Amino acid sequence: MNLDATAVTEVEGVGSKRAKDLASLGIHSVADLFAYFPYRYEDFRLADLTEAAHDEKITLQGTLFGTPSTRWYGKKKSRLTCRMQVQGVTVSLVWFNQHFLKNKLMPGQTITVHGKWDAHRLQMNVERVFLSAEEQQRQIGRLEPVYSVNASVTVSWLRKTIAQAFRQFGGEIQECLPQALLTRYKLMERARAMMLLHFPKGWEEGRQARRRMVYEELFLYELKLMWRRRLEKTETAGIAHSIDHQRLDAFIADLPFPLTAAQRRVVDEILMDMEEPERMIRLLQGDVGSGKTVVAAIALYANHLGGYQGALMVPTEILAEQHLHSLKGLLEPRGLRVIGLTGGMKAKERREAMGQLQMGLADVVVGTHALIQEAVTYRNLGLVITDEQHRFGVKQRGLLREKGQNPDVLYMTATPIPRTMAITAYGDMDVSTIDELPAGRLPVETYWVKQDVWPRVIQFIQKQCQEKRQAYVICPLIEESEKVDLQNAQSVFEEIAQELAPTRVGLLHGKMAAAEKDEVMRSYAANEVQVLVSTTVVEVGVNVPNATVMVVYDADRFGLAQLHQLRGRVGRGSGASTCILVANPASETGVERMRVMTETTDGFEIARRDLELRGPGDFFGVRQSGTPEFKVADLMEDQKVLEVARADAQLLVKSDVLWEKEEYTPLRRWLQAFENAASIVD
Ligand code: ADP
Ligand code: MG
Q1: How far is the CA of 622 from the centre of ligand 1 (A)?
Q2: pTM given for the model
Q3: How is 170-230 classified by DSSP, letter by letter?
Q4: Nearest atom in ligand 1 to 434's CA
Q5: What's the angle, vertex CA 627, arms to CA 398 and CA 589, rounded to 5?
Q6: CA-to-CA distance for 61 and 110, rounded, in angstroms?
Q7: Rounded CA separation 598/567 (Å)
Q8: Which residue has the least CA distance to atom 4 on ligand 1?
Q9: To test ligand 1's pocket by mutation, which of 387, 410, 543, 548 has the most ligand atoms within 8 angstroms of CB?
Q10: CB proximity list for 523: less than 8 A, separation 6 or greater
Q11: Which strand ranges, in their side-by-side order, compose the sheet holding 281-286?
Q12: 20 to 30 A from 483, CA-CA: which of 72, 274, 457, 643?
């Protein structure tokens, strides 16, 4: 019997009206009903009074004494109180608006109550009462599931319905994991785990049931990712780049600095992938300033040595310009032709650039999303790199890949994400991590100040400029806005330019024309302008190593990831750098963000704190979707299980048992169904 195809109306007591109610919770089939797990349990085990915590819900059994009394507040509201002897202690029980109970509470009677415990007053706000011996016996010790419901479904009805569904269809629940895995991890059977997750007899059993379902959920998820990856790799043969290592090593030796050990390691990982006939799909993670650009340059050069064109895609024009400049510096002396292609270029320039790509007259192209527009064709694209990958939508990921004969793909990102997040969001990729900054970098000193010390901030900037250093001042808005009382770049620029004269101050924001922006950035990079007042257009990737001061105005307006990126614009050279966050936070989270920023400069730690503040659902924001919603698993809590499940899935996809052994049939079917569905969706 296929429970996915069995409608809830097959469950006794569920008619078409009830089916509609269930549908409002996303429950359509009996399988959905079984998979609608409780998010917590009401605990009806008897509490030990000496250990009962204040404000917790507990269950007590005791003997009533004295007479109950009712007090009325107006005609409708009442408060019923009664005393009870529990473990030698007198506690008072309180019921609101349940005066009718008064006649049922007899002195000397033993009853069981459940509700919120006030440990200071020795008083319980009773929510549930069990009077008869039979009722008490049935209820004590139970863990009652609590479900998330809405106005049309009550928890108690859902509980009953799920119990009924188990009576009718519980026997039809199929195992999906192979025996080998069940044995290895001592996992309970699927049918039993599902039943116990709804109706555990004790905490330990509930825990075991959950453990089983968490593993299943994460394993199936990982298996799907690995499978997709395998399809992608086998269906579309990649390029086996032939790399001239002698020339490549000479190139690396000629760089202005030696690579860090971490850079060397990721370069090797990338080169190895490129030489394989399988297609490379790799994520390069590295904190701000860890030196990803040069890794990209090395990969692009290696790709060129094998005879292919390469593309580097970036999210902003400013970044495109910067990378174009540095790649030209590194690659043109080696005879490569490096060109740019952005939306801001004049039509004639664009046509020219596109022509060069099509004819193979250009070896490397650096550009914005203009690179993935349909009209752009390449003669032989062998490697595609995207920088600041988190800035691109998931869809755009795929588009550039399709431009060549399945070019190798390298995604670079500075947004440090905890490993579990990386695995789930980028699980279909290999991951390389640069976990080391170039030698001699000093951590950026970070201060949080209130707005009233602004004059001192200006003095500080002035002093730094006198020492030939440069500064950024970031403001949230471009122009005066009547509604929001935030500092805007335009007026801060005017103010600072006046106060700092003759120090030269520049202004940069997203509404400026491309050529204007380029000119401002160029003069800032050349230290012709010492202070750059800007909106967040410099947030990602911008590299001016001589800049050592980062001032962020209204810093509480920015998220942690953004602040970390902004701070990453300084501390890129050997000079000591300072970040000043100017903020009078209006909210508790605003304060907390300022605290996190002053406490640590470690991007991974910041990502972790960010995750705590925001919760995983929101972690990637709107830009980066693709984090799955799990029913039972919790990415923070179940990190270890995820790692294990991933390794198991990886192994299984590569082995033959999946195709040969009987016990793998359910998984095989499941993957095939997924494969069919995938070809329709993509
Ligand atoms: P990100 O990883 O943030 O993109 P970049 O690639 O922009 O970092 O590098 C930041 C700065 O560090 C650049 O000025 C770059 O020249 C420099 N850099 C990169 N690698 C090294 C290294 N191994 N030793 C010294 N400086 C380096
Ligand atoms: Mg970068």
Answers
A1: 29
A2: 0.69
A3: GGGPPP-S-HHHHHHTTPPPHHHHHHHHHS-SSHHHHHHHHHHHHHHHHHHHHHHHHHHHH
A4: 2
A5: 125
A6: 7
A7: 11
A8: 292
A9: 543
A10: 506, 529
A11: 338-341, 364-367, 309-313, 381-386, 408-413, 281-286, 430-434
A12: 457
- C-alpha 162: how far from its chain's center? 33
Superfamily in which the 245-434 domain is placed by CATH: P-loop containing nucleotide triphosphate hydrolases (3.40.50.300)
Q: Which of 305-314, 388-397, 606-615, 618-627 bottoms out in mean pLDDT, i.e. has the lowest?
A: 618-627
Is the CATH number 3.20.20.100 carried by domain 47-141? no
| Calpha distance 149→24 (Å, rounded) | 9
What type of residue is 49? L
The residue to mutate among 259, 260, 293, 325, having the most atoms of ligand 1 within 8 angstroms of its beta carbon, is 293
Q: Is 82 in the pocket of ligand 1 (CB under 6 A)?
A: no
Confidence of residue 126 (pLDDT cuts 50, 70, 90): very high
pLDDT digits (tens, 9 = 90+) for 607-651: 878 877 765 544 443 333 345 667 888 877 788 898 899 889 988
Between CA 146 and CA 143 the distance in angstroms is 9
Identify residue 596 by its one-letter amino acid code.
V
312 C-beta closer than 6 A to ligand 1? no
Check residue 317 and report its DSSP letter.
H
**How far is CA 627 from each of CA 13, 556, 621, rounded to the nearest angstrom?**
37, 26, 10
Provide DSSP, 405-429. Answer: SS-EEEEEE-S---HHHHHHHSTTS
Among the bound ligands, name the one nearest to the CA of residue 292.
1
Distance, CA of 180 to CA of 186 (rounded, Å) = 10
Query: pLDDT at residue 544 above 70?
Result: yes
First CA to last CA across the chain, in angstroms? 30
- CATH value of 1-44+142-173 in 1.10.150, 1.10.3860, 1.10.8, 1.10.760: 1.10.150
Residue 423: count of CB within 10 angstroms of its CB: 22
Residue with tokens 């801001």: 344
Amino acid sitting at position 496: I
Residue 344 CB–ligand 1 contact under 6 Å: no
Q: Give the amino acid at 142.
A: R
3-state SS class at 128: strand
Cβ–ligand 1 distance for 571 under 6 Å, the answer no
Q: Which amino acid is at 164?
A: Q
> Cβ–Cβ contacts within 10 Å for residue 89, how many?
12
Q: CA 114, CA 328: separation in Å to the nearest integer?
A: 73
- Homologous superfamily of 445-600: P-loop containing nucleotide triphosphate hydrolases (3.40.50.300)
Question: Is the pLDDT higher at 49 or at 330?
Answer: 330
18 C-beta neighbours (distance < 10 Å), count = 17
Residue 605 burial (C-beta neighbours within 10 Å; 0-12, 13-18, 19+): middle
| Residues facing residue 129 across a β-bridge | 113
